[in-house]
Sequence to fold (321 residues):
Amino acid sequence: MRSAFRWLEVAFWLVLVAGYVLWPGTLPLASQVLIAGLFALSYDLVLGYAGILSLGHAAYFGVGAYTAGLLAAHGWGEPISGLVVAGLAAALVGLITSPLVVRGTDLTRLMITTGLGLLLFELANRLGAITGGVDGLQGVEMQPLLGSLRFDIYGRTAYGYVLVVVFVLFLAARRLVRSPYGLSLRGIRANPGRMRAIGCRVDLHLAAIYTFAAAYAGVAGALLTQTTQFVGLDVLSFGRSAELLVMLIVGGAGLLYGGFVGAAVFMIVHHVLSSLDPVYWQFWLGVCLIAIVLLGRDGILGMGRRLLAPRRRGPAPPSAS
Fold:
């Protein structure tokens, strides 16, 4: 019987588990990459599987980040419960805004999601007495994880915590997209009119996945706040949504792992280039991104899939002579 996880998937997660030994000095960066990968996964659910184009997905990331930060700043620093509340808060905002997003064309969705993101950004800026404004939220202190594991400056506890949360949520998303509901989302992305003709409640399906993805984005934002013990206005910025789109395009949309690969490539290249050339690093980053997109039209994973395709088909049958 075919294994649920292919060997490449197993190797992927084993490498992450071995991160404590493989990159002990860069665990804080590795945690940020995993958080960005979870954020990209949340966007992949709405874009890669449901076909909802958005430039305001950072709104839900920011809601989760500020929820976790405000809870910790006011004495509720228990990480796991704070993570759950942050995810629910982001899901609630996603549910409320979903009727505005799921209807209309791609251009309409782009405008609406961009507007929602800008509205929340300016709201957080105006409510500086609560959010900290441009100075960021102060006094975020997390309690030890499970009562005994403190968040240290080396990032060991944070990395293990993030890895476990990301893995559990990935399993849930993997099961979702392989379910009949996930197949219906693919059908909606391909031809919403035909799905309506066969009785599928398209708007309801899209609203559900949009809310689910908002919850994932909120959890990612909460993880960032809890592991850095700081939250600023940048979690709601348009630039974060734009970077998210770049990560998913680089990795490959509609492949689940594309967000993780894209986030790793983007953040590692960003880190290396900014270290090598602190002034003109954005130029070289742009060159790298253009090269990746030109070489791999469907992202890095899409390019790898095409390279492996001949091997999967096997040798051609002998021709009759």
